[in-house]
Amino acid sequence: MPTPADPNARGIKTLDKDLGRISLLEQALVFTARPLIAPGLALAFLVLVAVVATAFLGAQPGALIVIAAAVIGGYMALNIGANDVANNMGPAVGSNAVTLGAALIIAAICETAGALLAGGDVIGTVSRGIIAPESVAAPRVFIWAMMAALLAGALWINLATWLGAPVSTTHSIVGGVMGSGIAAAGFAAVNWATMGKIAASWVISPVLGGAIAALFLAIINNRIIYRDDKIAAARTWVPVLIGVMGGVFATYMALKGVSKIVDFNLAEAALIGVALGIPLALVMRPVIRRQARGLENRNKSLKTLFAIPLVFSAGLLSFAHGANDVANAVGPLAAIVHGVQEGGAAESVEIPIWVMVIGAVGLSVGLILFGPKLINIVGSEITRLNAMRAYCVALAAAVVVIIASWLGLPVSSTHIAIGGIFGVGFYREWYHQKVLKENREMLALPIEERTRRKVVRRVHLLTILAAWVITVPAAALLSALLFLILVSVGGTA
Fold it and tell me: What's the DSSP call for residue 84?
């Protein structure tokens, strides 16, 4: 054994120190590089988008513009996946019905399938009538307007995701189109009646979602949770609730999820829902009876009975979202492709398959890389969700879309889902206050303690409401600025 005076011993000691420093340096590099992994992979995806667009376009006139637009469209798809999909998977994850990893896989598969199998084949080039096509008929002006709208919407959603605010991607792109349209052709180019309906949906969507989610929670509380024998009550009512969910989602999918494949009206979709819901309730009776055997008579046991339908509903919501909201990423891109190849705007354009693939894959990549943050906020940080509350939120989202389709109201799936979460949270607060009034000792608690017991976190409420209110004007202002920059650089001829 060498003594401390031995030169070899001193050398070994020095070597150990150097190795220790290198180890600490490696750990520091790993720690600092970890936050860069997701942006790096996202950048690699955008490079791949550019390569794919180049392969399809070759040396066509205007190819560089379309390639740049394709990259922006891929960026938009990444941000939609990061922000919007949280509304579908957040409640299931927050209630512990499914793990975050499983939710990401289910959502990625369902979003991609919805976008590719049922995504829009035809879309208005001016985002559903926000801007009159003839007002921006000059080909180059129209192209810059669509590109500015797409980039502005993507940048705004990116900022909202970073701030932890779930916003409407539809409203973001609508605001972008409105802003660039005003910059290109003035305020007269905007269809203000449509914009008025969109503004009304800021109130209609969350209020309807919250009210219906709270109503379903009140029914579940009354019929199952606050019964002496919860399991016996669950054996009776859970099959009925699953049948209702199956029927509602069948109606929802007929109206929204497969509307580009088969066009059902509301009456036909409702008949499909009834035809599926009633048999499903009957089939689920023996299944629930079997699952309920041996369960303890407490609320936690009910999670087992609601978990599977909750995951199933989240998957269906993701499929419908992919089918409908992929247009927010690829619609303006398809309009740019048409504008470059055909010249100018048109009432509607065909979406090339490679454009649809960019949108579909971008949704899933954005979800996997950046979605967990918003999924955790939506699922657990606004209010505490269990399987029953999450079921109410998912069911409310589908019901409100059906009602809106019936009334012809433009609603946001984001606003509905978040409104449903706040609805169940505020319903629980109302019920707790009711209990407090009946219990004089609880009523005597200090105001600080009573505030602490509120189940809805106000900080998220204020952040989300502020983001909702400024989404359209913020996207519009940013889009107008980007349009002016593009025109000054690229010209209008």
Answer: T
The DSSP element (H or E) to which 124 belongs, if any, is: none
Residue 16 belongs to a domain: no
SS3 of 350-369: the string is: ECCHHHHHHHHHHHHHHHHH
In a domain, 106, yes or no: yes
Between the alpha carbon of residue 37 and those of residues 30, 174, 374, 389, the distances in Å are 10, 31, 18, 35
State the Cα–Cα distance between residues 368 and 121, nearest whole angstrom: 26
Taking each helix axis from N to C end, the angle separating 299-338 and 230-252, rounded to the nearest 10 degrees, works out to: 10
Q: Which residue is associated with the tokens 């009538």?
A: 129
Per the structure block, which two tokens stand in for 191? 């269809």
Q: CB–CB of 117/292 below 8 Å?
A: no
How many domains are contained in the chain?
1
**Residue among 85, 82, 80, 94 nearest 392 (CA):** 94
Which SS3 state, helix, strand or coil, does residue 122 take? strand
Contact assessment for residue 112 and residue 322, using Cβ atoms and an 8 Å cutoff: yes
Residue 444 within a domain: yes
Calculate Rg over the CA atoms of the chain.
26
Tell me phi and psi for residue 352, to 5 degrees.
-60, 150
Q: Do the domain assignments include residue 25?
A: no
Rounded Cα distance between 456 and 468, Å, is 18
Is 88:312 a contact under the CB 8 Å cutoff?
no
- Per-residue tokens: 233: 């009550």
Helix (H) / strand (E) element for 123: namely: strand 122-123
Q: DSSP for 453-487, please give it.
A: T-SS-HHHHHHHHHHHHHHHHHHHHHHHHHHHHHH
For residue 377, which of 460, 458, 452, 455 has the smallest C-alpha distance? Answer: 460
Across the chain, which has 493 residues, the per-10-residue mean pLDDT values are: 55 58 51 67 93 83 86 93 83 84 87 76 54 73 89 94 86 90 87 82 87 94 90 92 90 76 85 94 92 86 83 83 77 80 63 84 89 84 85 88 75 85 90 72 55 69 87 94 91 67
CA distance 361 to 428: 39
Residue 461 is part of which domain span? 40-490
pLDDT the model gives residue 31 = 45
Q: Which amino acid is at 249?
A: F
